[in-house]
Amino acid sequence: MEQKNYKRTTVTAALPYANGGVHIGHLAGVYVPADIYVRYLRLKGQDVKFICGSDEHGVPITIRAKKEGITPQDVVDRYHKMIKDSFAEFGISFDIYSRTTSDMHTRTASDFFKKLYEDGKLIEKTSKQYYDEEAHQFLADRYITGECPHCHNPKAYGDQCEKCGSDLDPTELINPKSAISGSQPVLKDTKNWYLPLNEYQEWLKEWILEGHKEWRPNVYGQCKSWLDLDLQPRAMTRDLDWGIPVPVDGADGKVLYVWFDAPIGYISNTKELLPDDWEKWWKGPETKLVHFIGKDNIVFHCIVFPAMLKAHGGYILPENVPANEFLNLENDKISTSRNWAVWLHEYLTDMPGKQDVLRYVLTANAPETKDNNFTWKDFQERNNNELVAVYGNFVNRALQLTKKYFDGVVPECGTLTDTERQALDEFKGVKDKVESLLNIYKFRDAQKEVMNLARIGNKYITDCEPWKVAKGFKSDDESVRKEAEERVATILYVSLQLVANLAIAFEPFLPFSSKRLRDMLNISDCKWDSIGSTDILASGHQLAEPELLFEKIEDETINLQLNKLEETKKANEAANYKAAPIKETIAFEDFEKLDIRVGHVKNCEKVKKANKLLKFTIDDGSGTDRTIVSGIAKFYAPEELIGKDVLFIANLAPRKLMGIESCGMILSAENFDGSLSVTSLLREVKPGSCVG
């Protein structure tokens, strides 16, 4: 594709939905790559604006408000603040983070719709939509649940089944139910305004399929799948009471569709940031527009929003939409409804000062072309084996040795050896490599190349062993002493230049540690073009006090996070628990054959060489103790059971377990998680009493 020269770049990141916090899937899919790209452009001195804000309209917010007994505004106010604060603390460097409930956005979205309406670009259409007769309101797609016709998930929504991923129409659901009242809705006529996407199909094919073959295969492929079908008119309004009112006559009780409203938020937020100068960022032909999104938003950003912009006229179109796939968590799909996620606001509390560790790991595991997986063990290993052992180790050795031998002053560079030349030759191409990868949105590979620089530096200082050469400082031979001093000075000079390069090259990826490293190097500014230079730090330059750039993460820290996920899993299992089906009916006479009695536990001990078995000595009221072996050792310590009264089956045929004859069975209830609970009594009953 022909390269275009742009004067400026507008970068947008998908508006997070103000119905909950931000999790690592959002970060890996959208916000970390977008921030890397923006920081890179700024380092290059390019004119760029980074635009985002909270998406605050739509059905899920009203559902949450109803459940909590508060207003939708209360919901969005809470989560807007949480999200905005978390992003700021995590270092996502937006130029503006606003919201779709702002006055500016309401005016902008209303004016946009009104122009399409007045220009005849929308069609008015009456269709049948589900109506809740108990709640007296039409139901948006997410207000309707039922059985998916494809996978038969009983909790599918009216627009999508989250289990199999199928896009749905509410009328396709089997046994639909209202999410408000639980009643079965009825179909009723309603009027809405539609954007006739079919009229833009040929233009979209030309613009995307012919004009943007350089887009990521997952983005291009999904667009092609949609465009190979016949696009249909899509409703741009909804029958709801939460949202931006439709600004035309006869639209009482209707609001703008959230997917019409939300992308206009990019424009309104830019207007809020630059009220007198916003148009060049959205209408200037010399402006490059890039949308960072997740794969679930591809159709809206590549088909619906561009069609809206085309219909309106005057706006530029996205030059690229580098959408990522999904990130899983511990081999399971991230789910907000199941709380199966690592939430950013919780991470910032649990792992203070470790923003860059998460940024690094999420970039290293970025789901750029396929779904990927985050595990806490991988998080720990990448921190300990890469950030600490490679990058941090090299930086620490270079700075500490300079402090030790030269009082923290950058020494003079002497004669370069083949070792220096080899290391510097490997460094030469790094700027072009990293730059070429960032320009095509391959952030994972770009970060890998920068980490390779740290590996080169680590290998160089290890091969040169300046601590051994420095032993010559104590020589009585002046020539030997001078030679050693010059050699150590050269090694550390070169090492410090490599460290300074790393501080710049890592800045888009690891901004917090790069800032700390620049502080240690005592340099306040850096430019992308300096990468590859061997004179960033002048001889005689005074360095600041060195400190560790990263710290090792211990097993205890990781286990706390794993335990938190395990608790979440158990809570989900408990919430979804359903009793096993009742077994087939038996005759009362069959039950009477069982002799269930009360027994008093006189003693209990573990069975040797058996992890699951406990040996009980039971007073069964007969005057002779009874031995029973039971497989509950995983759930009880023996001393917990001594002195308790339990129920047991007395007339089972004896059987040998681990050489012990067991005469009966202790009765236990199995919980949803497989744990066993021994049955007990509410009142004291004599041993041997019958149950029936």
TrEMBL record:
The keyword Nucleotide-binding applies. CDD domains: Anticodon_Ia_Met (cd07957), MetRS_core (cd00814), tRNA_bind_EcMetRS_like (cd02800). Zn(2+) binds at C148, C151, C161, C164. Pfam families: Anticodon_3, tRNA-synt_1g, tRNA_bind. Residues 590-692 form the TRNA-binding domain. Transmembrane segments: none annotated. The keyword rRNA-binding does not apply. Binds 1 zinc ion per subunit. Its main location: cytoplasm. It catalyses: tRNA(Met) + L-methionine + ATP = L-methionyl-tRNA(Met) + AMP + diphosphate. GO terms for molecular function: methionine-tRNA ligase activity. ATP binds at T336. InterPro entries: aa-tRNA-synth_I_CS (IPR001412), Anticodon_Met (IPR041872), Met-tRNA-synth_bsu_C (IPR004495), Met-tRNA_ligase_1 (IPR023458), Met-tRNA_synth (IPR014758), Methionyl/Leucyl_tRNA_Synth (IPR015413), MetRS_core (IPR033911), MetRS_Zn (IPR029038). It is an enzyme of class 6 (ligase). Keywords: Aminoacyl-tRNA synthetase, ATP-binding, Cytoplasm, Ligase, Metal-binding, Nucleotide-binding, Protein biosynthesis, RNA-binding, tRNA-binding, Zinc. Its cofactor is Zn(2+). HAMAP family: Met_tRNA_synth_type1 (MF_00098). Homodimer. Belongs to the class-I aminoacyl-tRNA synthetase family. MetG type 1 subfamily. Is required not only for elongation of protein synthesis but also for the initiation of all mRNA translation through initiator tRNA(fMet) aminoacylation. NCBIfam families: metG (TIGR00398), metG_C_term (TIGR00399), PRK00133.1 (NF001100). This is Methionine--tRNA ligase. It comes from Xylanibacter caecicola. The lineage of its organism: Bacteria, Pseudomonadati, Bacteroidota, Bacteroidia, Bacteroidales. The gene is metG.
